[in-house]
Amino acid sequence: MADGPNHQTQPWPGPSSRQPLDLHSTTRSPGEQQCDFAGPFSPGKRGRKNPNQPPILAMASRGGGARRTRPNVLVTGTPGTGKTTTCSLLADAVDLRHINIGDLVREKSLHDGWDEELECHIINEDLVCDELEDMMGEGGILVDYHGCDFFPERWFDLVVVLQTDNSILHDRLTSRGYMGAKLTNNIECEIFQMLLEEARESYKEEIVMPLRSDNVEDISRNVGTLTEWINNWRPSRS
């Protein structure tokens, strides 16, 4: 995505009670628990598909922003794919600062009020980006969010898209109380791989890493893969 001030607002869920960490149920933060995809993803993003790009782990040595001495990583995916669990474990393993956007929006009031119909806050993307700008420039940040297209492209060295089998995702979401359109929208989002498409249209394909996240074994393996990538990352010389 190109940098610029013309961000828009989008719904973000309201508060709910935090539950204890449980890898088998991919416990989520209160922000992720009531997450909606209230509308279509932004059209017109530029794709950058190149079959000759090197494997993702090889990209670790090439680095990102010139100022950073530690990489910035975005972990995205449909609600219920295990973003917050993965980020919590990864942050401990590699000493990155974990920023859950839902928590940040509530703690800093980075929203434009409450949407009664969707029962969620309307996230103000300008305020979120302003809040994150300085820390993202320093590096070492692990961002956890269910979307990715409004962040400045220059912020991230790696964009991880977690994916979960539809039947597993259905069970996870219904256990959270999702029903009706909320449930259908999120399942369809996963079926049509909308988050992966959004990531590939918003960032260079060479930094987008899709990972399967069906169970605790997948989560453990993903944390290992990402730990290796982060430990091999080197700042860009450009």
TrEMBL record:
Interacts with small ribosomal subunit protein uS11. Not a structural component of 43S pre-ribosomes, but transiently interacts with them by binding to uS11. It is an enzyme of class 2 (transferase). The lineage of its organism: Eukaryota, Viridiplantae, Streptophyta, Embryophyta, Tracheophyta. Broad-specificity nucleoside monophosphate (NMP) kinase that catalyzes the reversible transfer of the terminal phosphate group between nucleoside triphosphates and monophosphates. Has also ATPase activity. Involved in the late cytoplasmic maturation steps of the 40S ribosomal particles, specifically 18S rRNA maturation. While NMP activity is not required for ribosome maturation, ATPase activity is. Associates transiently with small ribosomal subunit protein uS11. ATP hydrolysis breaks the interaction with uS11. One of its GO terms (biological process) is rRNA processing. GO terms for molecular function: AMP kinase activity; ATP binding; ATP hydrolysis activity. It catalyses: AMP + ATP = 2 ADP; ATP + H2O = ADP + phosphate + H(+). It is found in: Cytoplasm; Nucleus. Residues 1-80 are annotated as: Disordered. Coiled coil: none annotated. Residues 100-123 are annotated as: NMPbind. Pfam families: AAA_18. Residues 175-185 are annotated as: LID. PANTHER family: ADENYLATE KINASE ISOENZYME 6 (PTHR12595:SF0), POS9-ACTIVATING FACTOR FAP7-RELATED (PTHR12595). This is Adenylate kinase isoenzyme 6 homolog. SUPFAM superfamilies: P-loop containing nucleoside triphosphate hydrolases.
